[in-house]
Design brief:
Blueprint (H helix, E strand, L loop, with lengths): L1 H99 L5 H27 L5 H8 L7 E6 L8 H22 L3 E8 L3 E8 L11 H13 L3 E6 L4 E8 L5
Parallel strand pairs: 1-2
Antiparallel strand pairs: 2-3, 3-5, 4-5
Helix pairs in contact: 1-2, 1-3, 1-4, 3-4, 4-5
């Protein structure tokens, strides 16, 4: 009996030891999982914060360009309204004077008339130069918006003549690109995304194509598409979104205002 009791005692001590080891393993494994989950959550939070910072910087670039554009247009309009009006009036007065002046004064009056016409042309040229040089730098804003991350490579092809865009059109394109990038990062499970901007002189075109999973319908980024469609509709544009053989594609076109 003592031998049997000793055997049971050893057996239960070993079992207790194994149970303690097992419990310790479970605890350590749980700590590793919690730590891993925490690290992953922190990484996701850092990525989200970084993307938010890029969006704020890109929006700042767009806002700065818009403010400069509006100010230059205001100056150009003021210049045209004041000097242009006065020079036109002067030209009309000289035209009348040329019929009333003595023969000896005709040459000088005609010279002054030509000079006023030249000055008026100069004013108009200055106005056009103001307008041609004040386009919003949409390219700069888009480049600031695109994230530099290892998981997704963003390829930019920016061939759009920005001078043809109004402020509202530029903002519409910018917001659609912003939403598309967000959808790629959140839903597409892609490692490559192409962003193309160009025009044909009458319409501006945007195309965003990723190589995400086309088999999983849950990857469809439907949440932001309604907002994009509303923005595009407000500027009389058209938008199409959906899956193709390569992944998910966003295509839109905007009629240019030809404000220049």
């Amino acid at each position: 009996m003592p031998i049997l009791a000793g055997t049971y005692d050893v057996f239960f001590k070993q079992m207790s030891f194994y149970i303690e080891i097992k419990l310790l393993f479970i605890v350590l494994n749980s700590l590793v999982l919690v730590s891993s989950s925490k690290i992953k959550s922190e990484q996701q939070a850092m990525e989200q914060a970084s993307q938010l910072l890029r969006e704020l910087q890109a929006t700042q670039h767009l806002l700065e360009s818009t403010v400069k554009r509006d100010e230059r247009l205001r100056i150009a309009r003021d210049l045209h309204d004041s000097m242009g009006h006065k020079l036109t009036a002067l030209k009309l007065q000289l035209e009348l004077a040329s019929h009333l002046a003595p023969d000896l004064m005709l040459d000088k009056v005609n010279t002054a008339k030509k000079l006023s016409g030249t000055l008026l042309d100069d004013v108009r040229a200055s106005v056009n130069e103001f307008r041609d040089s004040n386009g919003i730098d949409l390219n700069k804003a888009v480049k600031a918006l695109v994230p530099n991350i290892a998981s997704v490579r963003f390829e930019l092809k920016l061939d759009l003549n920005q001078q043809l865009l109004s402020n509202r059109q530029a903002e519409t394109l910018f917001r659609c690109i912003q939403e598309s990038i967000t959808n790629v990062l959140r839903h597409a499970n892609a490692n490559h995304c192409l962003i193309e901007l160009d025009d044909n002189g009458c319409n501006a075109f945007l195309r965003v194509q990723d190589n995400g999973d086309t088999k999983n319908s849950s990857n469809n980024p439907g949440n932001g598409l309604a907002g994009m469609a509303e923005r595009v509709k407000e500027v009389d544009g058209e938008i199409m979104c959906g899956f193709n053989q390569s992944g998910f594609e966003v295509k839109l076109s905007l009629p240019l205002d030809h404000i220049h």
